[in-house]
Specification:
The relative contact order is 0.18. With 211 residues, the protein is of the alpha+beta class. It starts with a helix and ends with a helix. The chain has a domain of 141 residues: Alpha-Beta Plaits, CATH 3.30.70. The protein has a three-stranded antiparallel beta sheet with strand order 2-3-5. Strands 1-4 form a two-stranded antiparallel sheet. It binds iron/sulfur cluster (2 copies). One iron/sulfur cluster (SF4) binds next to helix 2.
Amino acid sequence: MGAITGTFKGFGVTFSHMFKKVVTTDYPFKPPVAAPRYHGRHILNRHPDGLEKCIGCELCAWACPADAIYVEGGDNTEEERFSPGERYASVYQINYARCIFCGLCIEACPTRSLTMSNEYELARDNRQDLIFTKEQLLAPLLSGMEQPPHPMRLGDSEKDYYVGALENPGTSAGAERSPMGPGRYRISEHPGVQFPGADQAAERADKGDGA
Ligand code: SF4
Ligand code: SF4
């Protein structure tokens, strides 16, 4: 008797699901939209003139519990300037084989250089490609931005860049201004935007070497 009841219970579960809304998504043709505060791939933002917000301080690397970030700082000079102030990141890498997307690094960043986007398509077929370089992480050059190195265009000192930044969200302009939504972008869907990592990605694709 118990076996018969159990059988009907099992069929009941199957039957009840026949009338529920289907949740299958047509991925990758229609990628689901992540929640606005989803923790996805990182972005190194720029100032509105194109200079990098990152000052190479390494606080993000020290805050990371997974040891996923590697930074080497370099000195800006008047002839070759990448960020306002004295220092910039000459090397910046995030290893997505280690990252657990906790967001502690973006909390530690004093300049709001480092933020996280909604981009979740990070799967690669080899470990090397999971190490994203500075060129891949830098926000694209949007309208009015110029590829560094170049002099400070928005003031005479770094203070001019940071004072009033909280009242002026324009100073955080970067990939979060993407037409696809906050922090969401794909190289192939922005033909008019110059992505610093686009050449590398195209080269790898030509060689059939990685995603
Ligand atoms: S999100 Fe967390 S694990 Fe990933 S790089 Fe930042 S601090 Fe490290
Ligand atoms: S991303 Fe932020 S915390 Fe990390 S090195 Fe650059 S300025 Fe410092």
